[in-house]
Structures are given as C-alpha cells and as structure tokens.
Design brief:
By secondary structure, the chain is mostly helical. The protein contains five helices and no strands. Helix 2 runs antiparallel to helix 3, helix 3 crosses helix 5 and helix 4 crosses helix 5.
C-alpha cells in the first residue's frame, strides 16, 4: 500500500458511509419508514409482516453503518495523530487539508495562500517524510 492509498482510506470510507446512508434512506422511503430507533419493537402480524421484515433489515443496515462510522472515527484519529507527528507545520497542514478535511487542491491553495503547483510540491515532500517516518 502506498502512502497516498493509506491516507486516502479516510476519504474512501467516508464515501462508502455516505453511499450506504443514502441507500438506507432510500429503502426507508420506499417502504414508508422515516426513522426507527433500535429500541422500538417491531410487531409482526397480518399485513404488517412485510414492513416488519423490512424494518428488521433496516435495523441491520443501521448497525452495519454504525460499525463503519466507528471504524472511520478510529482511522481518522490514527491518521491525524500520525500527521500531527510530522515536524513541519506546512507538511501537517497540507496533509490534513487533503486527507482529513478532504479539500480540493484549489481550496488548499487558497487556504494556505500558495499557488496550486507549490501545494503539489509540498504535498510530494510531505508524503516522502510521512512514508519514511511511518511506512518504513
């Protein structure tokens, strides 16, 4: 795994969670359930069996989503701590903006008051330092 791939795990997991959340919302809407808490009982019987079955599946999806969110929080904390362990403030800022805050290169350049090309150069050097410190 390259340094970029390692750091991009936050972005990838965040997008996966976003997609799963949309899928869950669409499923809720399609069966007419807006929100359901884990502690609410689903009572099967008669014509509500299909809704009860769907509600159980929704609860299972919610639990899976909760696990993914917990994993994202842990991963974000680990990577943030590693980035914060770099000596250069500039390197820390660029890597945090790119991989934790998931900003575009234009947003990073504007925030840091550099041109985009300079941000790319800083990013390249920061990746090398990160790799040497954590991936060797």
């Amino acid at each position: 795994m390259t340094v970029k791939e390692y750091l991009m795990q936050i972005w990838q997991l965040d997008k996966e969670i976003e997609i799963k959340y949309r899928e869950l919302e669409q499923l809720r809407q399609s069966i007419g359930i807006r929100a359901m808490r884990h502690d609410e009982a689903v009572k099967p019987g008669g014509s509500s069996d299909q809704v009860a079955s769907a509600a159980i599946r929704i609860m299972s999806m919610e639990e899976c989503l909760d696990r993914k969110i917990d994993k994202l929080i842990d991963l974000r904390q680990t990577i943030t701590e590693q980035i914060d362990g770099l000596e250069s403030r500039t390197f820390r800022n660029v890597l945090t903006c790119r991989y934790v805050l998931m900003l575009s290169w234009d947003e990073i350049a504007e925030l840091m008051e550099y041109d985009v090309r300079h941000c790319h150069r800083i990013h390249g050097r920061a990746l090398q330092v990160f790799e040497k410190k954590y991936m060797s």
